[in-house]
Amino acid sequence: MGIKDISINYDNLKVEILNYDLKSRLCDESNQCTLGMEKKLEVKVSYQDGGYQSSDTSYDIRLDFLFGRIYSISYYDIDATNLPHEIMEGEEINITIPNHIDYFLNVFMNNKRLSNESDYQYKNDILILPNVNGDIRLYFKMPICQRATILHTEECKGNYCSGMGYKVDGSMGTKTITYGSLGTAGNLISGDAFDCDVNGDGNYDAETERFYYVTDMENNSNIAVLIYYNNVSGGMPNNEKYYPYDSSKENWHGPRTAMEQLPTTSQWSNVSLFNTERKLINEYGTTSTKDGHTFPEVLSYSKYAARLLTIAEVRKLVNFYIPTWKNGELDNQLYLVENTNFSKKDNSKFDGYWLETPRNTMSNYSWIIFATTRRVHSVEVQRTDTFVGVRPVIEVYKSDIDY
After folding, report:
1. Residue (of 125, 126, 91) closest to 109 by Cα position
2. What structural domains and CATH numbers belong to the chain?
3. With contact defined as beta carbons under 8 Å apart, do 88 and 70 qualify?
4. Using CA atoms, how far apart are residues 289 and 358, in angstroms rounded to an integer?
5. Are 227 and 169 in contact, with CB atoms under 8 Å apart?
6. Mean pLDDT throughout 302-325?
7. Counting CB atoms within 10 angstroms of each CB, which of 154, 251, 273, 304 has the fewest?
């Protein structure tokens, strides 16, 4: 807090504070600015010019203090030398910020991105933002993903998770399942949890924008592959709706039906795939089924900001060949099974979700993450009675990740 204004109850008198600058943070003599601190003010009362009257020199003085909240101004990728870092509520920001040729200036107040012209003006390197009523963040470039500070948890309510020991007297010693890890600064490890501003609103929503680092993109170690915490329907998190891989009962067209549920480029406008035209391959890395059906030359994700995970990417997470056809091959990657029937959570119906990869030996089968048994499995592409959903994967330059 700070003092915005001080007034006196006589027009011919004026008042000023000698040991405090109006509209600045209130701090005590030791420069502590916390709640409960005490500030002694030195106040000077004097006559206005021409306000002295010899016949009236006795006054019953009352001073009125108008307090206001102090908001912070934070700068990212901006030289903040000689720029203010605090401002009183209701005041106007009027500062010079040299234009960055590669990026637009992003202005946030109260964690909401403001619109140029309607909310503020930025012309000729001058930023004018009137009537400040919240903390301000200014960016020329923002990270797309930042490390999570809190991990998602679920309570074990069924046989699959309790079989792993998620019970009070079990090997895990608790009924709480924790997904992913907070990781180590400067390192990326499979399962590290991130909050990613996929919709570009400037918020990193730990509930609905949670992703987990899976691996690096093949042939480009500068790009990270991250998987969403939940299945989706129409691009939105959904724990009830499941879809076929391809309702045609044929796997050689790719996941035509499933991919229609992925977030579109307008829904997740802040991320994009680096190759929207992908090469569809089976588990052996070839481009056809065993009985001679050839995959399309291009699997197009042009409408979408995300894609499906591949069996090749899952194989990079373990040091043995997948599928083993044995339960538990992904027990060390439980972040892949959040919001599924693994925990028997009341609001989830999913046994797993589709991988992009069609099966070579059976032209009506495709691969899935079979979450309840923590392994890779395959099912008929048109099946919905196995409760298989669609889980998005995004691709992000590591330079756009705050890790």
Report:
1. 91
2. 1-68 (no CATH), 70-139 (2.60.40), 143-403 (no CATH)
3. yes
4. 8
5. no
6. 95
7. 273
- Rg, Å, the chain Cα set: 30
pLDDT for the residue numbered 264: 97
In this predicted structure, what is the pLDDT of residue 110? Answer: 86
Sign of the dihedral through C-alpha 376, 382, 385, 390? positive
The Cα diameter of the chain in Å comes to: 112
Q: What are phi and psi of 376, to 5 degrees?
A: -85, 135
Taking the C-alpha atoms of residue 237 and residue 340, their distance in angstroms, rounded to an integer, is 12
Q: How far apart are CA 183 and CA 146, in angstroms?
A: 12
What is the distance between the alpha carbons of residues 380 and 366, in angstroms, rounded to a whole number?
6
The residue count for the chain: 403
- Tell me the average pLDDT across 259-274: 95
Read off the DSSP letter of residue 99. P
The bridge status of strand 193-196 relative to strand 145-147 is antiparallel
CB atoms within 10 A of CB 225: 21
Quick check: 150 and 370 in contact, CB under 8 A? no
